[in-house]
Amino acid sequence: MTAVIARRGAARRIGLAVGVGLLMVTAGLFCMALSPLPGVAFGCTVVLGVGVSVCTGHLWPAYLQATPMDQLGRYQSLLVFAQMAALLIATVLFTAIAGRLGARWSLALCAACTLVTLIWWITSSQRRLGSPS
Q1: CB atoms closer than 10 angstroms to residue 121
Q2: Closest CA to 31 of 104, 87, 91
Q3: pLDDT in tens, 91-131
Q4: What is the DSSP string of 26-87?
Q5: How far apart are CA 55 and CA 18, in angstroms?
Q6: Which of 105, 109, 100, 104 is nearest to 35 (CA)?
Q7: pLDDT tens digits for range 24-79
Q8: What is the pTM of this model?
């Protein structure tokens, strides 16, 4: 998916593409949490991976376009730091949850967090565009 985005360019409606990507991530995670068979879980993982590619493949170019050229290195460093810090916290948190409650609960809670992110994305996008709440 990332190669397709790189070849064809980002979608004109970046906000919609990011929303679709987040929806796919949420669906893939919930599907994996509920999956009864390894083959079904594999299919869910594919949906999850495509969703991550769609989301990040549209967010990064938008972020880079909005960054002042003389500050590009600093902005990229800050973004990577924020991603790594969030990854560290999430890894510890969801591993602890998986250890206590099981992998299904950990995946389901991760999906719930992604769903909250999707809801935030939709509502904040509507506010930025001046749409009624």
Answers
A1: 17
A2: 104
A3: 999 999 999 999 999 999 999 999 999 999 999 887 765 55
A4: HHHHHHHHH--SHHHHHHHHHHHHHHHHHHHHHHHHHHHHHS-GGGHHHHHHHHHHHHHHHH
A5: 4
A6: 104
A7: 999 999 999 999 899 999 999 999 999 999 998 888 878 888 889 999 899 889 98
A8: 0.83
E strand or H helix that includes residue 117: helix 103-129
Distance CA 51, CA 18 (A): 9
Altogether, the residues listed in the chain come to a count of 133
Residue 25 near residue 51, CB atoms below 8 Å? yes
Q: Give the closest residue to 32 by CA, choosing from 48, 53, 8.
A: 48
Q: Which residue has the tokens 């890894």?
A: 91
In 3D space, the residue among 94, 90, 111, 91 whose CA is nearest the CA of residue 103 turns out to be 94
CA distances from 121 to 14, 20, 21, 77, 125 (A): 12, 11, 11, 23, 6
Report the amino acid identity of residue 33: A
